[in-house]
Input
Amino acid sequence: MMLKIKDGGNPRPKKINWNLLFFLAPAIILIIIFFFVPVFLTFLMSFTNMSTATGLTGFKIIGFKNYLQILKSQWTLKILKNTLFYVFTTLSLFNVGTALFLAIFSTHISENAGKFVRTLWLLPRITPSVVYATLWTWFTAEAPYGVLNQFLSPLGISSRNWLMSTPWVFIILINGFVGASFGMLIFTSAIKNIPPDYIMAAQVDGASTFQTIRKVILPMIRWPILFVTTYQTLSLLTSFEYILLTTDGGPGFYTTEVWALYAYHNALSNYYGNTLFGFGAALSVFLVILGIIFSIIYLRVFNFRALISEPKIEV
Amino acid sequence: MKKNLVLLIISLILFLSLSLSIAKDNIQTITITAWTIGPDRPSFYRRDNLVDAGRKLNSLLEKEGSNIRVKVEATFDTGTWADYKQKFILSASAGKAPDIILSGHEDVAPWGEAGYIIPLDDLIKKYKDTTDLKDIIPTLWKSVQYKEKTWAIPQDSEARPLYYRKDLLKKLGWTERQINDLPKKIQKGEFTIYDMLELAKTAQDKGIIAKGYGFWPRPRKGNDFYIYYYNFGGEMQDPKTGKLILVKDALRRYYQLFADTIFKYKTTPEKYIGMEWRIWHESVVAGKVLFWQGGTWHWAEWPQVYKADPDDMEKNVGYALVPPAENGKPGVTLTHPLAYMVTKNSKYPELAFRVIALAINPVFDARHAVTSAHLPVLTSTWKQSTYYKNKFLREVEYMLKFTTFIPNSPDFGTYDEIVFKGVSAVANGDVTPESAVDIVVRDLENALGDRVIIK
Output
């Protein structure tokens, strides 16, 4: 088998680089086993009525029935909207927005103060998920138990379960406080890697701090911004643990249910013991498609090809 | 001669000890694994009864001359039901389930269909007469039957009463006699659920209790919500076809009750559903709530886990059936029997079954009932002194005559997800009861098609 590779407009035949294939093989095999095979199996499973009751052997092939059920459901659009709202609000306000602010802020103050700020923001990340979520549920609980209500009652604000009253606010905050630290670390290291000559040159030219950030720092960390945005979008699309541990998708009709949680609820968790693997698989297929669409959009918006072909700085 | 005698004795001792050690070596110890759950902590005898039954079985096996002995390795979970069942489903799918699983009776339908658990009819027939299984309350057997087979052995039952503070009723001007007669009035249908809400509102208006502390039903997902559905004439399952049923009018009235208590009478706090259990328990234990609906097992949990004063409970907390929807009808409760099941992964299903059968005896049944405030499964337990000396259990036992069950159907999980979201949405103020019913009906039809009958 021969590959043709364009080189300066002159195609020339080239032999397969067996060494290259040999070294890539472990990664390729892992990707096939842990990504392509599960996706393929999930895809197959989505055409069955497999559930706890049918077991892994007694199921039937039901064609597109699961997909039709999703399309006919009165909640599909709401859950999709919830998912997009959750992903983009958390992403823009915290995972990229706050992360960028913290990285710039902590690199523009003294080294020790910067370290302190970054360590503080890492605390939610290193706290176990269940403990972290439980702390929030206690923080927002009814008086006299909830700390928040104790602060608000002197201001004349009546006591309530804040998590259930304004669920989205707290879901974004809970996820955002954890999510911001990842971007903060990446952006900080990227900013610190910008050669000081550029910053100094800008300052000599009379640029203000804001102008330096806007005209020098931000363009130079485009690649880490793309990486954090893409990575965190895909992470948020599939993350649901803090929603599960706090509102569990409620209150009411799917108020805070996101697509990944919807798939989890159907495929793996049921109060009365019958989980719907087939229907859950169909929901997961939708999620995979959504992830691929986002990846393609990001690659185009950030001009990924140009970014990897012309590295300006090392991160 | 003497030397020979000594030699003979030594040889005999050696021979005997050798024979004994060979016999000992022939004994085969089989490990029987079991998973049990509270989640209420006082229900630990669900595990310990199995472990002790293992010892009983070993004595029996020895008498039978068998060289087999069992070692029961059982766990007791205090996490959530959903996590516990998920863990079992995943392990059963992977062929790594324990020999015995304790779960709700309704699980016999999906798990029996899936082949995760085995039917026990033949083993019951074989051992019923020689064990206490013959004394199991007949209605409890029905709860573990599905498609004309028996899939589990009932482990305990309970009732879900309405609790009330007698001291707060006294402050409202009720006499001792009136307070003590309340359970009977509810049983006879002379005090309805709306009478209860009116009374709770009066107590709030008079400042005896704070606003929103008049009536606290269960705050999180669970079986108790179906008490209100049944109360308003709900039906759950068609006995002939096994299909699930939804009675629209009963559902609307059940949702309306939640809307009324939260928004009209303001006897339940807004944003109530989703409240942490810890807060719920601590509030009722502190005597802040006038009426609340819980389980009999809470009676054991309050002093053991939430530091309630047993004397205060004895003196100031009353219990009755959940008041009926209409005058003249008796009050209602719901029972959710738990049961031991033998899994398909068990290599020794008969031994696993015998462990279960021996765990169900009057002494063990009584100690579990008394420690955890559950109701027994054996009629013979009623004669146990530890049981009949327990005033609370004696006084709630009559509730079983007025009880209801959730159905055994593999579709019930899907049904419940949808119906519970309805009450949660109404209680949250998102939709009216009428709209919630319409939404629920559309969802049920989409998810279950003709497997649900809408009336």
